[in-house]
Amino acid sequence: xxxxxxxxxxxxxxxxxxxxxxxxxxxxxxxxxxxxxxxxxxxxxxxxxxxxxxxxxxxxxxxxxxxxxxxxxxxxxxxxxxxxxxxxxxxxxxxxxxxxxxxxxxxxxxxxxxxxxxxxxxxxxxxxxxxxxxxxxxxxxxxxxxxxxxxxxxxxxxxxxxxxxxxxxxxxxxxxxxxxxxxxxxxxxxxxxxxxxxxxxxxxxxxxxxxxxxxxxxxxxxxxxxxxxxxxxxxxxxxxxxxxxxxxxxxxxxxxxxxxxxxxxxxxxxxxxxxxxxxxxxxxxxxxxxxxxxxxxxxxxxxxxxxxxxxxxxxxxxxxxxxxxxxxxxxxxxxxxxxxxxxxxxxxxxxxxxxxxxxxxxxxxxxxxxxxxxxxxxxxxxxxxxxxxxxxxxxxxxxxxxxxxxxxxxxxxxxxxxxxxxxxxxxxxxxxxxxxxxxxxxxxxxxxxxxxxxxxxxxxxxxxxxxxxxxxxxxxxxxxxxxxxxxxxxxxxxxxxxxxxxxxxxxxxxxxxxxxxxxxxxxxxxxxxxxxxxxxxxxxxxxxxxxxxxxxxxxxxxxxxxxxxxxxxxxxxxxxxxxxxxxxxxxxxxxxxxxxxxxxxxxxxxxxxxxxxxxxxxxxxxxxxxxxxxxxxxxxxxxxxxxxxxxxxxxxxxxxxxxxxxxxxxxxxxxxxxxxxxxxxxxxxxxxxxxxxxxxxxxxxxxxxxxxxxxxxxxxxxxxxxxxxxxxxxxxxxxxxxxxxxxxxxxxxxxxxxxxxxxxxxxxxxxxxxxxxxxxxxxxxxxxxxxxxxxxxxxxxxxxxxxxxxxxxxxxxxxxxxxxxxxxxxxxxxxxxxxxxxxxxxxxxxxxxxxxxxxxxxxxxxxxxxxxxxxxxxxxxxxxxxxxxxxxxxxxxxxxxxxxxxxxxx
Length: 906
Known about the structure:
- Helix 5 crosses helix 8 (217-231) and helix 15 runs antiparallel to helix 35.
- The strands form seven sheets. An eight-stranded mixed β-sheet has the order 15-25-24-17-18-19-20-16. An eight-stranded parallel beta barrel has the order 27-28-29-30-31-32-33-34, surrounded by six helices.
- It is an alpha/beta fold.
- The chain is elongated and about 105 Å long.
- The relative contact order is 0.06.
- The longest helix has 25 residues, at 616-640.
C-alpha cells in the first residue's frame, strides 16, 4: 500500500515543483535550484529527494521505501524528457550527478558524485555520440575516484591509515602516470592512457576494498543516493555541525541532476563565483574558472584557477586569462544572472556554473559564506543601495563575524620590517601568528595546550576540518579562492592563504622550504591573510576595530537594542577598553582582583596582614592600612566611568586563597606582625577548608568579620564623595555576593547605611547609591520575593548558579564535558550557554519573584553567559535589564541583544 507523502520534487525546463522557501524539506541547494528554474535560468533538469527521506533511510537501517523507488523512477523519466536523453541508454545515455543539500550550507562536509551512469554498457554510445573518447574516459576515471571514495569506503565506515584512502591511492596512480610521461597537467593524458588507467583503477578498487566497482547505471544511482545520506553522519559532517551548532536531526536532501560537462575541450569550462567579494565585501563580481575541467577541480584546489574578470585580477593571477576575455558572451550572460540572483535573494550569492561547448548552465546558487569584514561591508552597502533595510542589515552580521572583526591584524609597523618569504592568494583576511604544524592532529594538540599554530597543507580536505578550526591560520600550496580551505576559513573568519606554489613541503621530515630557506615544525610563522603574504618569523599584532564602518554599524545596532550592555572590569584600563566598545557601565567590579596581577604586591601584603591577625584590634589596624588601596582602586575606575553605574562586588573568595605560600613571604609577614613563621603557618592552616567553593566566602565572610565589610563600604563612599567634590558624577552600586537569605542583606544594609552616614558627615557630601545582591545560589532565586525587600537590584551570577544547579565544578568540567556533548546527554556546555530548563528557569523565577515585591527591581546578568549570543536571546525574552561581559565581548553582546529584540518583535 503506497502512502501519499511527496518524497521527490522535480526542477528544470524553466519550471519546478518546489521553491526557494522550502529549505527545510528540500535543503538549501534543492530549494535554490527550484527557485532558479522558476526564474527562467538555464538549470540542468533533475529532482530533489527530501530531507524527510534521510530520516526514513536511517529508520529503515539504510534502505529505501517502495514509494521512494517509484517516485525516483517517475522523476527520472521527467528529467529524461526535458534533457532528451535516457539514463542507462546504450546509444545516448543521460548522466547525472548526486549532491547533498542540507538546509544550512556545509561546504565540503558532505559528498558529491559526478558522471553517474557511465558503465560498460553506456561508454561506447557516449563515445559515439560525442566523438570525444578522451572526454568520456576522463569522466569515467572521475566517477571511479569519487564513487569508490564516497560510497565504497567512507559510507561503509572504512577508516584507512593516513595516506592510504582509496582516493589517495588512485590519485598517486594518476600522478605516477603523469610523471612517467612527463606530463604537467591532467589534460595532457591521452584517451588511450585514460582508458587503460580506468581499468587499473577498477582493479585497485577491487584489491583495496574487496568489492567490484558497480557496472550498471541503476546500481551507481542508488549507491550514490545512499552514500549522500550516509555522509550526513560522516565524521567531518558531525564535527562541522558541532562547531556551527547545526541540529543532527535536520538531515540532508539529495539532489540528482543531469550532468553538463566542463571537460569537453577548450570551449568548455567550470567555475565558482560570488556576486560580491566574500573576503572584503567589495561590490565586484568575483570568482574563478578552469577551462576543460569539472567542478571538483576548482573546489578541490588541484589546479590553480583563472580569475573571472579583469577587475578582480591580483598580482598572483594577473597573467592568467579571465573568462571575461576568453568567452565574452558567456561572461556577459553570467554577469546578468548574478545581478538578477542578488536582486531576487537580496543577499550575496555563491554560484556554481558549467560551460559546455559554449553554453552556460547554472548548477547552484546559495547565500555565500563570507568573512566578518565582508559581512559588515555588504550589510552597510546594501542599506545604502536600498536593497535591504537597517533591521535586515543588523541581522546579516552574526555575533561570531563581529567577533572576528575584533580579532587582530599584523601590526603594519612590525610587518614593514619583516622579510616576505612567499605570496599566495588572500583567501581569508586578518593576521595569524603561530608555530608551524603539518597535520590536523598537531594543530588540535597545540590548541589544547593553548599554543597558536599555523596549519600547513598541500591542500585541505574535509577530513582536516577539526585541525583547521583549531589552527590560528591556514597555509596551502594548492587551491584557489573558492577551494575547500578558502570557503571553510572564510566561514569561520580564520586567516587563510592558499595557492602558495613557491612553498615546498616535506611531510616525512616535517619541513617546509621557500627557496633556500627551510623551516621546521615548531618554527614561528606569520600570515597576512588580507594580502596573501607569508613571513618566517613572529610579527606583532594589533586591534582591527577602528574601522569607521564598524562604528557606524554599531550605531545602527543600538537603534534596535532593548537590553543594556555593561562590562566586567576591575581596572581603569579594562574600563577604558569597554567604553570604547560601547559599554554602558560596569556590571561587575570584583574588589579582590586588586590583589592579583600588576601593582598588587603592596595591597596584597596589607590584605595578608589583615587575614592573619589574631584580634579585632590587630584586624582594625590592618584594615586601616588596606583601606586607601581599595579607595584608590574603586575611585580610578569610577572616574573613567563618570556618569555611568559601577557595581562593586564585596570581597568574594575565601581568605585562605590569599595566605602566603612561599617561605620568604611567610617570613616577611611574620616580621611585620612580630610573630614566628610557625605561628603564621598555624594561623593559615586554621583558615583551610575542605570545600572552599561552598565555604567561608562572600557574605558569610562579612557576617563573621563585619569590619571587612565596613572597610569596603567606607572606601567606596569616600571615593564617591571625593569624585563629587571634583565635579564628577559617580554612580556606585554595592553588591553582596553568595547570599541565601534576606536577613543577610538586612544585616549588611544596616552596616552600609551607618558607614554612609559617617562618610557623609565627614565629607559633607550627600551620596546616592544602590544596594543589591548577586543571585548565585538556587535558594536565593527561589526566595527572591523576600530578597527584594532589601535589594534594589539583582545581578545573576550564572557561573556559580550553574555550578550549584548542576553540581558540576567549573574548573573540572573539562574532564567529562566532551563525553556529555558527544553522547548528547547535554545539548551544549551549560557554562557557555545558559541551560534554559534549569538555570534559566531559576533566573526567570528570581526576576518574577523579586518584581512581585519591588516592581522597579533592576535585574542584570554578570556571568560568562552575559556575552553568549544564545543566552542573551533568552535573557531578552525573560525581562533582564542588562547583561555584563568582558570588554572584548561588549560589541558582540550589543549585536546579540539587538538581534534578539528584532526576532522577538516578529
